[in-house]
Amino acid sequence: MNRRDFLKFSGEGMLLLGGMSMINACIGVKREDLPRSNDEKTSIKGLEKDEMEILYLASLAPSGHNTQPWTVKVVEPKHWIIGSDMKRWLPAVDLENRELLLSIGAFIENLVLAAGTFGYSTDIQIIAKNRTDTEIADIRLKKDKVQDFPLEKIKERRRVRNNFLDLEIKADDIKYITKHDTRSCLIPTVSPHSFYFPNNSPQGKYFREGTIEANRTQAFRDPAQEELANWIRWSNKEAKKYRNGLTAESMEITGIAGLYVRNFYNRQSVLKKGFREQTVDIVAKQVKTCGGWLLVTSSDSNIPTLIEYGRVFENMLLRIRERMIAIHPMSQMLEEEPWKKQVPKELGLPGEVQWILRMGYLKSYPDPVSLRMPVSWFIQA
Ligand SMILES: Cc1cc2nc3c(=O)[nH]c(=O)nc-3n(C[C@H](O)[C@H](O)[C@H](O)COP(=O)(O)O)c2cc1C
Predict the structure, then answer these.
(1) What does the DSSP assignment read for 249-294?
(2) How many A from CA of 124 to the centre of ligand 1?
(3) pLDDT tens digits for 112-142?
(4) Closest protein CA for atom 12 of ligand 1
(5) Residues near 170 by beta carbon (within 8 Å), at least 6 away in sequence
(6) What is the DSSP letter of 169?
(7) Tell me, what's the pLDDT at 24?
(8) Could you tell me the domains of the chain?
(9) Cβ(63) – ligand 1 distance below 6 Å
């Protein structure tokens, strides 16, 4: 927003806001502002307090556009089927449900770690045969010895996109972050391959340029932009109603700009040419400033592999905050043609790329703000 826009809209805005509580209009809804749920006191589908807590912690996992695609069917106590809700798929950018399965994997990783702290080991069977199957994993919790894991790491994890420092990531930090935690490995034969490229390397240039162009393609591809528009909760009212999707806060639009978009933007704003162009400009600025890029490849993209790579991703994310590192998934090159097919070949890497991650050090780490649906909303009969 430029100065002229601001003056124009701030005048109109102040009039429009006249009837509202200024405080409410000024501050965006954050996760901590909403009651976690009303469920704690009453048991849902016979779930015990521990089970509700484990599922809540699982739901703090990341997901594309924060759709929180997971569902949990309670078969019997401590026996669940983890699935996905078709209404929370993203067909325009993730037609093959690859990212959906990665998100479910991240949910399962949190679930396993949280269950361990409550003294349960987790038996996981992947039951989905096709990527469109809505029942994905059969989970049984068994009483076992308590595992020590700081749950704060799950609660504090968040995606950060702005204010990355222009510093290369230290080799020791890369090693620490990509160290695969074999304790929680689903398929022992799957060994993730991570490749780090500094931003000023030829590969870094390839990711910078490719990410800008893939974002341009996606921003001007109507079905993808319409899908994005459907998942942005501009107003506080919508944010509170749905408790999923992207908010101004979670997109790091804060201050006056946040106030403006919360009150004047709507679904149609996202489809305007100016918004699409601005998206590309923001991405161009982001990719210029970072330490480098982490690419994670696998030998195949079978369902168990995708679940495992979602787990590996979440496990990495749970280790970055302590090193003041942010990881920003930039998935557009894996979603748009021609980059989708070209990335591993261009880099001379074998296998299939599951993650393109922009990395950078932060001076200060912001708290999580993205919303979460109460557990009762994703439990199925
Ligand atoms: C499979 C997958 C793909 C994602 N792709 C992107 C992306 O391209 N750009 C982006 O900014 N965030 C991306 N994210 C991050 C999500 O938008 C983010 O996790 C979600 O909004 C919830 O916010 P939180 O991680 O702060 O809880 C992706 C996350 C997942 C799991």
Answers:
(1) TTTT--HHHHHHHHHH--HHHHHSHHHHHHHHHHHHHHHHSSSEEE
(2) 25
(3) 999 999 999 999 999 999 999 999 999 999 9
(4) 329
(5) none
(6) P
(7) 59
(8) 33-156+368-380 (3.40.109.30), 171-361 (3.40.109)
(9) yes
